[in-house]
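stage 2 :: seqdesign
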């Protein structure tokens, strides 16, 4: 245990966040504030509090009773709550207005438009009819998305007027688990055609330092399910103007004292920001940064929350990739296993089953992030890591029953 104490709001699932909780526990004694009793988290905690995280006053009262040196979340659902608590309790962290500016995707688009910082044509619609009006200025193809929801849930490309009603319904009805968009309305924006990367950065004392650049792989078009990432991205996908744009975007939003995750597409008119998130990246991207660069973004986030300067040393250790296994169609899962020969591959860092036996895994638009398993590998090069990830993931043995989906076209 350490001499400092850190309050953590929410914890996430073990497959995606255990590396982060482990790293943070080396920096401080953790008091977890959650709306569910701790399970896998227990080994890393000094204490835990069971609180309704939708009740701001209840959380504030609970945290006030804790003698703590800082407050932190890496959960997208709680970034605004944590920013408010941080301000109310006098801890170090990003400001409330800055977090709100990036949590509401339409608000950040408005800031870009007003400032002229790589703006993207956009509008917000409350009805399909309004969506068609917005498209007159945005143009086709366009992307429909919830204003504040993670995991690419409810995000779809629209190429013709005939697709508007369905895409609007997808965006308004999308959920991640039981969580819906915090803000009403559908964000409609121009489609930026080009490869996509993410940039995880540390901002401390007004200085933004991009540290981990991942190349993103998506699938299940016209939706944007994330099926994999590799670190580092090729140099061609991370020219100097990308880093310049990321730094300027943080300044525009007013973000400081935070670890962030920025999604960028390299379009025909240059790089464009798709999203800027005021929290640690998801999908194990920070863990890939640890494997490929020795950069510990979770520790950096803890340092900042505790008021300490974060370590931002970066080395070239090779490449790392993550790949998520999706079913080819809607299924009911009976079982999943990794053959021994694949489990013994030296490139394999970790393998985790994500789907529960008996669970129905539905593909978009009926379900999102319906992943069977996750594979993390390392390699001497980008190509070696990607090849290993693909070979291991395609060798996973899946026993499932296909589900009939009446009246649905894909």
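stage 2 :: out
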């Amino acid at each position: 245990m350490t001499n400092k104490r850190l309050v953590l709001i929410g914890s996430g699932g073990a497959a995606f966040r255990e590396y982060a909780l482990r790293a943070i526990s080396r920096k401080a004694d953790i008091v977890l504030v959650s709306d569910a009793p701790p399970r896998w988290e227990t080994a890393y905690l000094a204490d835990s509090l069971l609180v309704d995280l939708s009740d701001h006053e209840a959380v504030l009262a609970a945290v006030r009773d804790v003698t703590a040196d800082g407050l932190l979340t890496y959960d997208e659902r709680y970034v605004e709550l944590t920013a408010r608590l941080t301000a109310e309790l006098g801890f170090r962290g990003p400001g409330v207005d800055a977090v709100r500016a990036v949590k509401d995707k339409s608000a950040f688009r408005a800031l870009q438009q007003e400032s002229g910082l790589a703006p993207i044509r956009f509008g917000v619609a409350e009805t399909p009819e309004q969506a068609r009006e917005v498209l007159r200025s945005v143009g086709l193809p366009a992307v429909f998305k919830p204003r504040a929801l993670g995991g690419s849930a409810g995000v779809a490309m629209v190429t013709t007027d005939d697709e508007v009603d369905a895409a609007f319904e997808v965006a308004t009805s999308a959920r991640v688990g039981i969580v819906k968009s915090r803000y009403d309305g559908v964000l409609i924006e121009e489609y930026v055609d080009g490869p996509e990367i993410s940039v995880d950065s540390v901002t401390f004392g007004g200085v933004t330092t991009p540290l981990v650049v991942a190349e993103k792989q998506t699938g299940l078009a016209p939706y944007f399910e994330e099926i994999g990432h590799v670190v580092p991205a090729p140099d061609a996908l991370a020219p100097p103007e990308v880093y310049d744009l990321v730094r300027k975007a943080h300044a525009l939003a007013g973000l400081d004292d935070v670890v962030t995750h920025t999604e960028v597409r390299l379009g025909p008119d240059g790089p464009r920001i798709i999203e800027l998130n005021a929290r640690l990246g998801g999908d194990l991207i920070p863990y890939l940064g640890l494997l490929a660069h020795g950069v510990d973004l979770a520790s950096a986030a803890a340092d900042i929350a505790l008021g300490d300067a974060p370590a931002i040393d970066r080395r070239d250790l090779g490449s790392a990739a993550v790949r998520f296994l999706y079913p080819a169609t809607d299924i009911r899962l009976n079982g999943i296993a990794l053959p021994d020969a694949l489990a013994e591959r030296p490139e394999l860092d970790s393998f985790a089953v994500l789907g529960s036996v008996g669970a129905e895994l539905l593909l978009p638009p009926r379900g999102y992030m319906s992943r069977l398993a996750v594979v993390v590998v390392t390699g001497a090069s980008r190509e070696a890591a990607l090849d290993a990830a693909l070979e291991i993931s395609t060798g996973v043995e899946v026993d499932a029953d296909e589900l009939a989906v009446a009246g649905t076209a894909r």
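stage 3 :: structure notes
- DSSP finds twelve helices and 19 strands in the chain.
- Residues 240-253 form the longest helix (14 residues).
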